[in-house]
Amino acid sequence: MLTFKNFNIADWFSFYRIVAFPLLLLLLWLGNRDVFAIFLLISYLTDAVDGFLARKYKMTSARGSQLDSLGDQLTFIAGLLGLVYFEKDFIFENILLIIVVFSPYIIQMIIAYVKYKKTTAFHTYMAKISAIMQSIFILHSLFY
Questions:
Q1: Residues of the chain with pLDDT > 90: what percent?
Q2: Helix %, strand %, coil % for the chain, to 5?
Q3: Does 3 map to a domain?
Q4: Tens digits of per-residue pLDDT, 6-16?
Q5: pLDDT tens across 37-83, in order?
Q6: d(CA 131, CA 137)
């Protein structure tokens, strides 16, 4: 059971992304692209900060890792949905490039689910680079 007792600042940043997901879906449903993009940017920034703070101040924990992984997955889904909803023409014009950019993450999630019956989140440098590239791609598409 999730309790807020003893949440540290890194946990709160991760928790923000989980709570922001329904808000992002609402903004998507309302078609509010600008506010959606701003909240998605905030989610990506909190993702960049939470792990750094946890490691720097020795606040890492199993709970923090789980919150971070769930927040990452929800933010990724929200970003993809926003890209598809707000940039339909761009998606169809560049479908092969988009498949190449996002397929490593999606394939990893499918394999993990098939093998372990749950998603996994390996926090490797390659995963971080991939997440940064995907975030930049989505934000650039939404802001410009």
A1: 46
A2: 80, 0, 20
A3: no
A4: 889 999 999 99
A5: 999 999 999 998 988 888 899 888 888 888 998 999 899 999 999 99
A6: 10
- Matching residue, tokens 């996002």: 102
Name the domain count of the chain: 1
Q: Which residues contact 22 (CB under 8 A, 6 or more apart)?
A: none
Q: What are phi and psi of 8, to 5 degrees?
A: -100, 175
Q: Is the dihedral of CA 95, 96, 100, 105 positive or negative?
A: positive
Amino acid at 113: Y
**Residue 1 located in a structural domain:** no
Residue 76 burial (C-beta neighbours within 10 Å; 0-12, 13-18, 19+): buried
Residue span of the structural domain in which 116 resides: 9-143
To the question of pTM greater than 0.85 for the whole model, the response is no
* CA 71 from centre of chain: 6
